[in-house]
Amino acid sequence: MTRTRAQIAQRLTRSSGSLSTAALTRMEQDMPWVMELPAQDRSFIGLIVQAGIKSFIDWYRHDEAASPISAEVFGVAPQEMAGEVTLQQTVAMVRLSITVVDENLDDALGEDAESVRSALNRYAREIAFATAEVYARAAEQRGAWDARLEALVVDSLLRGEGDETISSRASALGWEATGNVLVMMGGLGERSALEQVRRIARDRGVGCLSAVQGDRLVVVLGGVDELGKSAAAVAVAFAPGAVVIGPMVSSLTEAKISADAAHSGLRVAIGWPDAPRPVQADDLLPERALAGDADARRALLEQVFAPLAAAGGAVLETVESYLSQGSSIEATGRALFVHANTVRYRLKRATELTGLSPSHPRDSYTLRLALTLGRLDPPEL
């Protein structure tokens, strides 16, 4: 007796319960890890098996050639299961379920079993692709959520909301860095720059949070060394042009300090055409001060003018005279009526106090501006 697809499908439907039970029993025997899952996850696996068998029956009934398999077969299970059960394990479960159904077709269908086996094999291939789709979709959604959360964390840090909530959110993104933290900013080139930044940071063993803000790329690095070598390596991911590194701070919650300096430096970096790439925000103090950055102005007064003034009038006067005399030691000595070696000694002392060499073109520019600011607004010594 020749039966139609609908009749065979009806017989399969009547056997679907026993087929599902047989598949689950085999899984428990051949896949010990299934029994180690939480009870809720095991129940979802049962639902997946039942849904898969039902899907095959419907697919067969309505002519499989016209009914493509989709990932909706797995709709009974929550997306979180993609994080509990690997793709490899899921494919193994699917294969085992198909094998068990195949082994039980003779009992369920008798002489009609052979007509179903070829369709079952095609279904097995299709359902494997649908399984991969579930995991790809879960990974895509997880990646999109992580990107949004990361952008939110970076934005909160830049606005000074560096409380424990931000730290916990950063931890959820894999931030485990301890030690020094810095922020660097520059232009955004390719959209792949974010992944390149993460890869470089991972290779360097430093923590990394990054986000795109308009045409600007912002990177927060944690666990960096005192010389900031990791930041220099990350700079290659930015678009051509200035890349500014903010000063290091002691923790993620203080990142705003570094971010403010980096942002201020990036705005005025055009004022120093020959600046290195990347450039430290503190090396752009003159440009930042001229642009109205109060923090930069205060830093020049406290770090440059104040130490020179506190060292005594001779050192300050010598630096001013040296800069006015075109960086000539002999001319400075004649102007001050002192020996050239005395000029050299005082200039060396100025370098020790400020870290700036009066004979260096860039340092002399910084010194000159700091001295001018000091005369206009003398700090309290």
**Class from helix and strand fractions:** alpha+beta
**Mean pLDDT score:** 81
Give the C-alpha Rg: 35 Å
Distance between the termini: 108 Å
Major sheet details: 5 strands, mixed
State the shape: rod-shaped
Count the E strands: 5
Description:
The protein is 63% helix and 7% strand. It is an alpha+beta fold and 381 residues long. The protein has a five-stranded mixed beta sheet, with helices on both faces. The model is unreliable at 66-73 and 139-145 (pLDDT under 50).
Write a brief structural summary.
The protein is 63% helix and 7% strand. With 381 residues, the protein is α+β, with helices and mostly antiparallel strands.
Topology:
Blueprint: H1 5-30, H2 32-35, H3 39-61, H4 81-84, H5 87-109, H6 113-158, H7 164-172, E1 181-187, H8 193-204, E2 207-213, E3 216-222, H9 229-234, E4 243-245, H10 255-268, E5 279-280, H11 285-290, H12 294-310, H13 313-324, H14 329-336, H15 340-354, H16 361-376
Parallel strand pairs: 4-5
Antiparallel strand pairs: 1-3, 1-4, 2-3
Helix pairs in contact: 1-3, 1-5, 3-6, 5-6, 12-16, 13-14, 13-15, 14-15
Task: Tag the structure with descriptive keywords.
rod-shaped; 7% strand; 16 helices; 381 residues; 5-stranded mixed beta sheet; alpha+beta
